[in-house]
Write a structure and sequence with these properties.
binds ligand PPE; D-amino Acid Aminotransferase, Chain A, domain 1; 29% strand; alpha+beta; D-amino Acid Aminotransferase, Chain A, domain 2
Length: 305
């Protein structure tokens, strides 16, 4: 998947893929405090590549850093430009951008002192996150036995590397059992998010998604909320339980990697008839039209290369 001839942007300059290494005593590697983003660039219908909501993603990177008390040694503008430059450098017209900010080596132990903050940006080609069929047919989801973070244990609004240990455990657990993705409940037992996605349900024409209280403020989630409201759909941000989800007419995941993925089954229960997702489909189609530059009303979400 990753091509070795690719270049990586590292601390302000391009270096070959094979040289983008870090020292074994990198603080973030030991203790998990680092922040990252996941951004997609799409090849638009007119042949021009465009990055989807780049400004918002870079803002969230800085928010995550603020939450983690990490000072990024570049401006937002510089990071935005670097993301685009990395795509150009690797001649990618469509793909995924992964900026990461981490605490380098220096003093040992939990306290990071003044260890240098380093920034890397990689790009790669990434197809459908949950498999080619997922976007069409929907996926089988299992509620994880792991609980999502308590808001005063991990900082849930930051895209912080260490937070993802919970995601990896949850995802591995359900994949081993033969499911496609994990859905994780919060410390009070309400639905929170997937291992790498936000979640929506549809019941009697009303769309419902979890409030932002204890989840990652997903940019795809925000885009879907805009799309649904612009279509005049009724949408609420409200907590819900797993049994409410079992009886939904439709459910879907949103994420940069996962895009808009229908959920066909949860805990072996078919959602709706398990086949048709009229509301999900309408939102998914509109979403793909927007990211591919086909919808002039949302053109300000696109940053052409
Ligand atoms: N919740 C979590 C926990 C999460 O990781 C993501 C993105 C989202 C919600 C959706 O956020 P947004 O991408 O802004 O709509 N997960 C990223 C990482 C996936 C990975 O495997 O790595 C992503 O989709 O890029």
């Amino acid at each position: 998947m990753v091509q070795r001839e690719e270049k990586i942007w590292m601390d302000g300059k391009f270096i070959p893929w094979g040289e983008a290494n870090v020292h074994i005593l990198t603080h973030s590697l030991h203790y998990g405090l680092a922040v990252f983003e996941g951004i997609r660039c799409y090849l638009c219908h007119d042949g021009r590549p465009a990055v989807f909501r780049l400004g918002r993603h870079v803002e969230r990177l800085f928010d995550s850093a603020q939450i983690g008390d990490i000072k990024i040694p570049f401006s937002k503008r510089e990071i935005q430009e670097a993301c685009k430059e990395t795509l150009r450098m690797n001649q990618l017209k469509e793909g995924y951008i992964r900026p990461i900010v981490f605490i380098s080596d220096g003093v040992r132990g939990v306290y990071p002192g003044d260890n240098p903050i380093r920034v890397g940006i990689a790009t790669w080609t990434w197809g459908a996150y949950l498999g080619e069929e997922a976007l069409e047919k929907g996926i089988r989801v299992k509620i994880s036995s792991y609980t999502r973070h308590h808001v005063n244990v991990m900082m849930t609004k930051g895209k912080i590397c260490g937070n993802y240990v919970n995601s990896v455990l949850a995802k591995r657990e359900v994949i081993k059992m033969g499911y496609d993705e994990a859905l994780i409940l919060d410390t009070e037992g309400y639905v929170s998010e997937g291992s790498g996605e936000n979640v929506f349900m549809v019941k009697n024409g009303v769309l419902k998604t979890t409030p932002l209280t204890s989840i990652l403020p997903g940019i795809t989630r925000d885009s879907v909320i805009h799309i649904a409201r612009d279509k005049g759909m009724n949408l609420v941000e409200e907590r819900f339980t797993r049994d409410e989800l079992y009886t939904a007419d439709e459910a879907f995941f949103t994420g940069t990697a996962a895009e808009v993925t229908p959920i066909r089954e949860i805990d072996d229960r078919k959602i709706g008839d398990g086949k048709r997702y009229p509301v999900t489909r309408e939102i998914q189609t509109t979403f793909f039209d927007i990211v591919k530059g086909k919808n002039p009303a949302y053109i300000e979400w696109l940053d052409y290369l």
